[in-house]
Automatic annotation (TrEMBL):
GO molecular function: DNA binding; DNA-binding transcription factor activity
Organism: Amycolatopsis acidicola
Pfam family membership, one: GntR
UniProt keyword annotation of Transcription present: yes
Alphabetical list of PANTHER family matching this protein: TRANSCRIPTIONAL REGULATOR, GNTR FAMILY, UXU OPERON TRANSCRIPTIONAL REGULATOR
Record has Transcription as a keyword: yes
Domain HTH gntR-type: 1-69
Protein's name in the database: FadR family transcriptional regulator
Amino acid sequence: MSVTDDAIEAIKQMILTGELRPGDRLPREPELAERLGLSRNSLREAVRALSLIHVLDVRQGDGTYVTSLEPGLLMDALGFVVDFHRDDTVLQFFEARRVLEPAVTAMAAMYMSEYDIQNLAYLLDSLPEEPTVDELVANDVEFHRRIAAGSGNPVLCSLVENVSGRTTRARMWRAITQDNVVDRTLSEHRAILQALAAREVELARSWATVHIAGVEHWIRKTLVDGA
């Protein structure tokens, strides 16, 4: 482990133990470096690294603070990394969706409010009879985002949003090239919605798996095997 890694671990432990809490200001650099037995350069590199992943907030002329540590903020760093992946890795993100979203959908069947489920139905009904590709994909993204939020777990919600958001372009390709994609998407969305409304946990999980696996299969055959 490098000296910078040691510094990162030391700051992380201060946060995990509660010595530093969200919103707290870190001690001044010379004081913290002496306290941790680290060089100021190593501490500076650690602070820079932790600020890149939104754990710390460096405010010029003011000091360095622990961020809110909200899941959505921390998961932004995942999105930053994912954006640099090549198109031929999109299948991996659909595989990740297939693992995450059925579990999240099952949780939503238990915890999503009746009000939010009703609004989910309104969302599906708001789609025009002959939607554009942009309208279809935007509706699809929002549908899954609301279900993730309905799970009641903000960490899982942030993970789903970051992974799912990076598959938008592939979903648009599918909407353009695959026959009956509108009817199939809406049919599967309504099956998921009905399972949520009925509080059928395993049925909701199964339909989410079928729905995402179908898109994954198309990605594999069209964008990967067919490349």
